[in-house]
Amino acid sequence: MTLFSASALRRLADTSSSSNLIHFARRHLSSTTPVSNFDKLGCIGLGLMGHGIAQTAATAAAKDNIHSSIIAYETDQKFLDSGRDRIQKSVDKLVSKEKLTSSQADELMGKITFTTDRDALNDTDLIVEAIIENMDLKKQLYSDLGKQCKPETVFASNTSSLSITKMAEASGRPDKFVGVHFFNPVQIMKLVEVIRTDYTDPTVFDNTVKWVDQIGKVAVKCGDTPGFIVNRLLVPNLIQAVLMLERGDATTHDIDISMQLGAGNPMGPLHLADYIGLDTCLFIMQGWVNDFPDERAFVVPEMLKDKVAKGELGRKSGKGFYDWNGDRRGDPVE
User: Fold this and answer.
1) pLDDT tens digits, residue range 57-109?
2) Residue 30's CB: how many other CB atoms inside 10 A?
3) CA-wise closest residue to 308 among 277, 330, 276
4) Contact 175, 199 (CB under 8 A)
5) Interval 263-281: pLDDT, tens
6) Cβ atoms 304, 330 nearer than 8 A
């Protein structure tokens, strides 16, 4: 039987209703041995990140047979069709570049079952969720999945900034819950942050790290700290650049060129903030400020709030700290 730390049990008692605590206790006392192989994979959400995760897993499944099937689920048929089209176009591009044969492409696509029926996820071994970054929606989803999926199913959230622990508690099976944070574009970026909480069964965590390796990615391990590794280091850096600009310490050009030529970064922090999206930067940092008000590294610059309020979101809106023409960056905004 999996043992939990005293701090984990105290957190569950403090943050969960009595009914949820009873539900957890029942699951814990009758806990099943974690599966050692994630044969049947579920992917929830086929947007920017989700379709890439499904395609990456299907590529590995077709090549090395690590999955017998992949269930790609969306709530609405139009989103399902859009996700399928994104995967098909990406696969067709690989065929045109002779990186895949037509038969390999057909085998890859044949590994994925596209559906709007959530019951199709019930007997999966691992479910990777990549829906909108909204904690209430994610908690409700995991509460529902926890009741409908087989007891052995492991849940994994692709969130980039939300608490894995809170979602794990909502699921009713926190020992079988991890974070798997992929990076965009998923098909190209090699890194995946694998996140554990105080509840996570060590075997579940090790199996997830193994799965990340099997699909051709590089896993790094992290506890459930805000932003995990990359964003915890990156986002405060971007914010400090905005604060420096806000104070008038240096210009946009000089801040960015300094970090390129002085620190060897491929692009400066304000350029990168524009590329990510200033609304995304604000969303992440504002969430951290709300959840961790005593953390001095978490602060929201007024300049950032003002730009987002004016619709100046960076690359996606055509204007941020720079002017943009599509993906081509122009001059700094004066």
Assistant:
1) 999 999 999 999 999 999 999 999 999 999 999 999 999 999 999 999 999 99
2) 9
3) 277
4) yes
5) 999 999 999 999 999 999 9
6) no
User: Rounded to whole angstroms, how far apart are CA atoms 75 and 276?
Assistant: 26
| Count of beta carbons in the 10 Å neighbourhood of residue 302 | 10
How many Å separate Cα 211 from the centre of its chain?
16
Closest CA to 174 of 334, 20, 323: 20
* pLDDT score for 34: 64
Is the separation of the CB atoms in 152 and 125 below 8 Å? yes
Residue with tokens 């920017």: 48
Question: What CA–CA distance (Å, rounded) separates 324 from 128?
Answer: 34
Say how many residues make up the chain: 334
Containing 109, the helix (H) or strand (E) segment is: helix 102-110
Which residues are known catalytic residues? 160, 181, 193, 231
Q: Which of 203, 202, 153, 197 is nearest to 179 (CA)?
A: 197
Rounded to the nearest angstrom, the gap between the alpha carbon of residue 258 and the centroid of all alpha carbons in its chain is 30
**Token output for 149:** 């999926």
Q: How far apart are CA 117 and CA 297, in angstroms?
A: 43
**Hey, how many other C-beta atoms are within 10 angstroms of the C-beta on 195?**
27
3-state secondary structure 245-272: HHHCCCCHHHHHHHHHHHHCCCCCHHHH
169 touches 176 (CB < 8 A): no
pTM of the model: 0.85
List the structure tokens of 113. Answer: 């079952």
